[in-house]
Specification:
single chain; about 200 residues; 2 domains; six-stranded mixed β-sheet; about 25% helix
């Protein structure tokens, strides 16, 4: 589009027999204006809204109760969110440990959460407490669904629960997909994001 506009302006200038220097200067100015407008629009589109995500189990930055870890029932915590964009079609959630010894470690991948929902109940699994269209991915334990914090004894680990609002439903993404596969499928479809951080430490 920019190239066609540039050629059109150049041809018009030529027809009017404006001298070469004026033609070059004018077309450079127009080209710069069009580029800046395009860049500004692209930059605006790339900025995602910020969602807010909460849990009734713990507050952002606090310790995650043992119920939601390998030292307890190891069930997923309740989550709810707001500040949702109007065009959302589905949500996806990823939970990962940024302090794992082997690098970033994924505990939970869940996607195709209906866009009209504002909450996930506690203890959601592929067969419990969630609608059939919701899909569960494979975590780094090699399991489909939620596997709670279970770090080696020592310093607290930080666990991030990220939520993504999407402008589509990921019909082509199969159950059991990994985080990387989900991230790839979401490219160009993220309208908004939010995150919740909790900590957990094992004494022994």
């Amino acid at each position: 589009m920019l190239r066609n506009t540039f050629l059109y302006l150049a041809s018009k200038l030529s027809m009017k027999k404006i001298n070469t220097v004026q033609t070059i200067l004018f077309t450079m100015i127009i080209g710069t204006m069009l580029f800046n407008q395009y860049f500004s629009q692209t930059k605006t589109k790339s900025k995602n809204m910020e969602m807010k995500i909460y849990s009734s189990a713990f507050k952002d930055g606090n310790f995650i109760p043992s119920k939601y870890t390998c030292e307890g029932a190891n069930v997923s915590p309740q989550l709810h969110w707001n500040n949702v964009p109007k065009d959302v079609k589905s949500f996806a959630i990823i939970m990962h440990d940024i302090d794992a010894p082997g690098g970033d470690f994924v505990h939970w991948v869940i996607y195709n959460i209906p866009g009209n929902l504002k909450e996930l109940h506690e203890d959601v699994t592929p067969s419990r407490n969630v609608s059939d269209e919701v899909m569960f991915g494979t975590n780094d334990f090699g399991k489909v669904g939620y596997s709670g914090p279970c770090p080696p004894p020592g310093k607290p680990h930080h666990y991030f629960i990220q939520i993504f609002a999407l402008d589509t439903i990921l019909h082509h993404l199969e159950s059991g997909s990994t985080r990387q596969q989900l991230l790839k499928a979401m490219e160009g479809h993220i309208l908004a994001e939010g995150k919740l951080m909790g900590k957990f430490r094992r004494e022994k």
